[in-house]
Design a protein that fits this description.
Elements (H helix, E strand, L loop, with lengths): L2 H31 L8 H6 L4 E6 L4 H11 L3 E6 L6 E7 L3 H20 L3 H29 L1
Antiparallel strand pairs: 1-3, 2-3
Helix pairs in contact: 3-4
């Protein structure tokens, strides 16, 4: 490898590094120009001038609702209502996202009902333990009966 080839390779490498830096800067600038999505503050949601609506939600259900809202790409803001004895959270969203919110809440309530109707692990273990115990008892009586008949 000669010195001229080495210098040519270094120039090409440095050009590629500079090109990648400029691409990253352009991508970062484009991300900053995009409006925020997902969970945002009430003030940022109000700046979007789309008319806001709200729904009450209990503190136990916030995390599971956030997962569904992210799935549907909804911009929302949470605000804690301290005036009520058990604190309630208000979910603010844009008025034009109303259809998406109803679909998200429909899916969320379906998940919550499915989770509520599902028996706990402890209950399922007790049930399986009883089934196994019953099958062992049947097998023992069969073996005893067979031994006596011989």
């Amino acid at each position: 490898m000669t010195a001229s080839i080495l210098s040519w390779m270094m120039k090409k490498y440095l050009q590629k590094v500079d090109q990648n830096k400029s691409i990253r800067k352009q991508q970062a600038a484009a991300r900053k120009r995009m409006p925020p999505t997902g969970k945002i503050s009430v003030r940022e949601l109000a700046k979007q001038n789309a008319g806001m609506k709200n729904i009450e939600i209990t503190p136990e259900n916030i995390k599971s609702f956030e997962r569904v809202a992210r799935k549907y790409g909804i911009n929302y803001a949470l605000k804690k209502d301290k005036t009520k004895d058990p604190p309630v959270y208000m979910v603010f969203f844009k008025g034009r996202d109303e259809d998406a919110i109803t679909a998200a809440f429909r899916e969320y309530t379906g998940q919550a009902l499915k989770k509520a109707n599902r028996p706990t692990i402890h209950k399922r273990l007790v049930k399986f333990r009883d089934v196994i115990k019953a099958s062992k008892d049947q097998n023992r009586t069969k073996h005893k009966h067979q031994e006596q008949t011989l």
